[in-house]
Design a protein that fits this description.
Blueprint: E1 2-10, E2 19-24, H1 26-37, E3 51-56, H2 66-69, E4 76-81, E5 86-87, E6 91-97, H3 99-107, E7 116-122
Antiparallel strand pairs: 1-2, 1-4, 2-3, 3-7, 4-6, 5-6, 6-7
Length: 129
């Protein structure tokens, strides 16, 4: 596994409430896109760029408010990732482990996930390349 860091951010006002993610290094995404494009796989960056969602609004046990997240926003978090890219033909991601994210979820009254993923991109609005 490889190690990287991300910064905790909140989703934009035009997105569903209660979504929080790690903003990851875009260069990691560019590298894997370059590498996998050699095999014919192409994707575009997502709305939140290369990221790890760790609070998913209505998909979690509760929706975490911005006030509850205030002390976490902007914090740098370490995570480990596997460099094998998974796809469902619409999105591309790599498995992620982060005990720090699990700890934050527990502090907020949610269950830990134990496994996350770094989203590299998707094929939404992708025109022929």
């Amino acid at each position: 596994m490889f190690t990287s860091t991300g910064i905790i951010r909140s989703a934009g006002a035009n997105q569903k409430p209660g979504w929080y993610f790690l903003e990851c290094d875009e260069e990691v995404g560019k590298y894997y896109h370059w590498l996998y494009s050699r095999a014919g796989f192409h994707w575009k960056s997502c709305m939140n760029g290369v990221h790890v969602s760790f609070l998913a609004g209505e998909k979690d046990e509760k929706i975490v408010s911005l006030e509850e997240m205030e002390s976490y926003l902007g914090k740098e978090i370490e995570f480990s990732y596997d460099n094998i890219i998974w796809t469902n033909t619409r999105a591309f991601w790599m498995p992620v482990l982060s005990s720090q994210l699990d700890r934050i979820r527990v502090e907020l009254g949610l269950n830990p996930r134990f496994l996350y993923h770094v989203t590299l991109g998707n094929v939404k609005y992708l025109e022929n390349i």
